[in-house]
Amino acid sequence: VFEAEQFGCPQRAQRMNTAFTPGAFLHQRNGNAARSLPSLTNDLNLWASLHTSFAWLLKACGSRLTEKLLEGAPTEDTLVQMEKQA
Would the pTM of this model clear 0.70, i.e. be above it? Predict the structure, then answer.
């Protein structure tokens, strides 16, 4: 996307080198809001892909966690045994 925009608008590099000020930002964008991430990456399925990846990551990390229910204060032998297993 970047190369296509640079080829279509060669004077953009000169404008990018000028100082960015809050007042000039909206003027440079012609009053438009910032573009969305799918339009910047040219990937319309970006959010679905990110959601799938993050859901898998959470599931993979969650499957590695195990909980042990201990009733009462653990004895010293129990603590030593748990440390050996970890």
Answer: no
